[in-house]
Amino acid sequence: MTTTPDLALPGVALIVCGEHPAGRDSATSGMDGLLAHSVLPSVDGTTELHYAQWGRDTVEPAYPDLPYRMYRRHAGGHAVGPPGVVLAKSVRTDGVEQARRLAAAQLEVIMTERPRGLLSSNFHIATDGSTLLQYAEWLTEAALAAFLDSRTGAPSPAVRDMMRGKQVRVRTFGPGRTLVPPPASDPR
Question: Which of 112, 122, 117 is nearest to 143 (CA)?
């Protein structure tokens, strides 16, 4: 079964997310505090997005990616169904406050335009404030392409101004697999 992360998973304290060459090992056994680890293949098949959800504020050294906290989530619109594609956009920021302002500006565009086929848009801020990650779930690749090709897909002037001169990375991923580690054995 192909899946994407459960973005409403209870008990998540920290999310560790990063892109790696396709085929990276994603062992989950023995990872105390790991709730789920999702691996999504890029649409072009060259990389994978690793999205690990942790129930504590520290992570195992085997997870070298940037740690994030979920900042804001906009679920819904009028699309219903499982995600067919995920757009992951990361923007380098000059701290938590700038990341929050950029997330708010992007969320305002989404809520105003209500793009067809958007299932959810989830904003994560790196714990060091260096990066804003937007993880957007779309019903289909066609819906995402239509939004990006439309005039409504262009960034608003406020978003464009805040992103000027920033390092931006945008990639698309398909559904993959979610690994849930077995529960820790009871030592009693």
Answer: 117
Burial 125-150 (b: 16+ CB within 10 A, else e): bbbeebbbbbbbbbbeeebbebbeee
Phi, psi of 133 (to 5 degrees): -110, 120
Which residue in 117, 43, 135 sits closest to 81, CA to CA?
Answer: 117
**Bridge partner list, 68:** 15, 126
Residue type, 24: R
Q: Report pTM.
A: 0.85
Cα–Cα distance for residue pair 170/133, rounded to 1 Å = 10
| pLDDT tens digit sequence for 8-46 | 899 999 999 999 988 776 655 557 888 999 999 999 999
Residue ranges of E strands in the chain = 14-21, 34-41, 47-54, 66-75, 85-92, 118-126, 131-138, 168-173, 177-179
Q: What is the pLDDT of residues 54-95, one digit of tens each?
A: 998 887 776 678 899 999 998 866 667 889 999 999 999 999
Assigned architecture for domain 14-179: 2-Layer Sandwich (3.30)
Give the start-to-end residue ranges of the domains of the chain: 14-179
- Token duo for residue 34: 């790991």
